[in-house]
Amino acid sequence: MTRLSRALGAALMGVFSPLALAAGLDMHKDPHCGCCSAWAEHMREAGFEVRLHDSPDMASVKQRLGVPQALASCHTATLTNDAGRRYLIEGHVPAEQVAWLLEASPDIDGLAVPGMPHGSPGMETGRLDDYAVLGFTVDDARAMVVARYP
Questions:
Q1: What's the structural domain count of the chain?
Q2: Which of 30, 43, 65, 66 is the most buried (most CB within 10 A)?
Q3: Alpha carbons 117 and 128: distance in angstroms, whole number
Q4: Distance CA 116, CA 54 (A)
Q5: Could you tell me if 121 and 38 are in contact, meaning their C-beta atoms sit under 8 angstroms apart?
């Protein structure tokens, strides 16, 4: 992401922070995964409350929650908006996209960053991969690009 994009994202987080502060994420992760913990910290820094649930069998968690297999990553979170709608957050989705999800309330089931792209939140390795944030529905496994990084 360019410096301008990062600055804009940071500014937007300031706009969305009241939403973030009101929202809590229930995050399921493997107890030994460091990048998952780093993503949780990224979300906390953006103002989200994050409740961690260590889950050694993440495949079962993903199946139970309805994460499409093609969109799987290392951790899965759920988020419920003020209207009671539950969203899935799969993988290293940037906080600004989760804030957008709360604000826009699109007719999707969640957001995903499939795999573990370098440079995504929690995967800061010094290398930057291009990656997309996908909005998806569980029933028909429809996915669409909602944002691209960097």
A1: 1
A2: 43
A3: 8
A4: 19
A5: yes
What is the largest distance, in Å, between two alpha-carbon atoms of the chain? 40
- What is d(CA 65, CA 79) in angstroms, rounded to the nearest whole number? 12
- CATH code at position 91: 3.40.30.10
pLDDT tens digit sequence for 49-89: 999 999 999 999 999 999 999 999 999 999 999 899 999 99
pTM: 0.86
Tell me 128's DSSP state.
Answer: -
Instruction: Look at residue 20 in the predicted model and tell me its pLDDT.
Output: 52
CA distance 12 to 8: 6
Torsion, Cα 107 103 136 112, to 10 degrees, reads -170
CB atoms under 10 Å from CB of 84, counted, come to 6
